[in-house]
Amino acid sequence: MAKHDFATIKINESAKHNLESVVGVGDIQGGGSDFAIQAPPPCEKEKIESSRDASHSKPFSMTNTNDLKALLDSIPTPPAQGWKVEKISQIVEKLSAGGDKPKVFSESKTQECQVPIYANAVEKQGLYGYTDKPTITQNALTISARGTIGYAVARYEPFCPIVRLIVLIPKANKANLKFLEVVINNIEIEQSGVNIPQLTVPQFSNLKIPLPPLEAQEKIISAIESVENKIAAIDSKLEILEKRKAEVLANALNAGNEREREREQAELKEILSEIESLLSQRKILQRFITKILQKAELTQSIHSLIASLPTPPKHGWERVRLGQVSQVIAGQSPQSQFYNDRQEGLLFFQGKKDFGEKYLQNSNVWTSQITKESVKNDILMSVRSPVGDVNLNPYEKICIGRGLAAIRAENYAFLFYCILHNKIYL
């Protein structure tokens, strides 16, 4: 976003230090005795404040760290010997896998089909469709057994699991459901073997996890949920602002005169400023969740993680060509008359505009003419400016245009990070 002419507010070094020490943020810009953030002048700030939805509370203030300190102080820490480690099989009441897609099925919720169906997927938290009868009626944890292996979601309503999605119902006196979700999502299950094309119930039942006493689990989860609620409030506000941004852009394009266009541009500047501020706050809160897990020793610290890494031999790791360890598929664009929004054919992706932080986002464009296909866990690389950006494909099958190439490899996760961190050489 271009720099605007809003006034600069300075915050003293003490406030900056407090924020960094509590949250662990090391990339806040500024030096000397002050650092700066962009803020609108009072008259424009009033406009922004008045446009806020009254139903949403004001999100966390980046400069007030007392609540975060108190939250971090409340986190229990393990004894000297560490938390007790137990196998999944020791803490479950029931462990099973989903079956076939039910005969009664609807892609959307209807009067007859009210029960959600979940499958192995990250998109929409695995929601596949709806049916009339649940097969799981207790609160349970689902764990993806294919594709993105180990993706866990706590479910608090009756549902129907399909296509070998693992379902875990914990013993109430042993484990908090949300705690298990957090711990399993922070364990690299795929690193427990060379490559796991599918996670089976017996394999998962042997997985070992740290298990604090139930009271400690609940304190940890209470702190995490407190931060997640703040993130959810920010996400709600961002959704409103994005809708308003689209409206303002459309109004600016259709403005009848220069004065109307300037008014819409001024409002757009305000909206972009607030979006930037909210995204910054969201990033800090996400990092704070990691800080909670680190204090509770439920995730590896950066130092222990680095110490656990293998080191190369004296002559270095072997170097190979990308084509020797993967299949590279160049995209090819269908003819535009086959594009549609009726969900006919496959989702179509042309370039990197639908790239997310790690996983491809929905393009909402389909094509009925299928040219080149990409399947789940392919690495998608942008091959037109900007060249080298990569994302993972979370969809079963999509169509890719000439702005992308699909890289298909057995050890896709390792290769993804190799490419990501060597983009500068492409």
The tally of domains stands at 3
First and last CA, distance: 26 Å
Low-pLDDT runs:
1-16, 25-63, 191-196
Helix content: 25-40%
* Largest β-sheet summary: 5 strands, mixed
Question: Averaged pLDDT, please?
Answer: 83
Q: From the alpha-carbon coordinates, what is the Rg to the nearest angstrom?
A: 24 Å
Distinct helical segment count? 10
H/E order of the elements?
EHEHHEEEEEEEEHHEHHHHEEEEEEEEEH
What fraction strand? 15-25%
Spatial strand sequence of the major β-sheet? 13-15-14-19-16
Describe the structure.
- With 426 residues, this protein is of the alpha+beta class.
- The protein has 3 domains: 8-40 and 217-306, no CATH class; 85-211, Adenine-n6-DNA-methyltransferase TaqI, Chain A, domain 2 (Alpha-Beta Complex), CATH 3.90.220.20; 322-425, DNA methylase specificity domains (Adenine-n6-DNA-methyltransferase TaqI, Chain A, domain 2, Alpha-Beta Complex), CATH 3.90.220.20.
- The chain contains 10 helices and 20 strands.
- The protein has helices spanning 13-23, 42-50, 66-73, 177-185, 201-205, 214-253, 258-295, 302-307, 322-325, 412-420; strands at 8-12, 34-38, 85-87, 92-97, 115-118, 127-131, 140-143, 152-155, 160-161, 166-170, 208-210, 327-330, 339-340, 346-349, 366-367, 372-375, 379-382, 390-392, 397-400, 404-408.
- The strands form 6 sheets. The protein has a 5-stranded mixed β-sheet, with no helix packed on it. It has a 4-stranded antiparallel β-sheet with strand order 4-10-7-8, with helices on one face.
- Strand 5 and strand 6 form a beta hairpin.
- Helix 6 runs antiparallel to helix 7.
- The protein is globular.
- Mean pLDDT is 83; it is low at 1-16, 25-63 and 191-196.
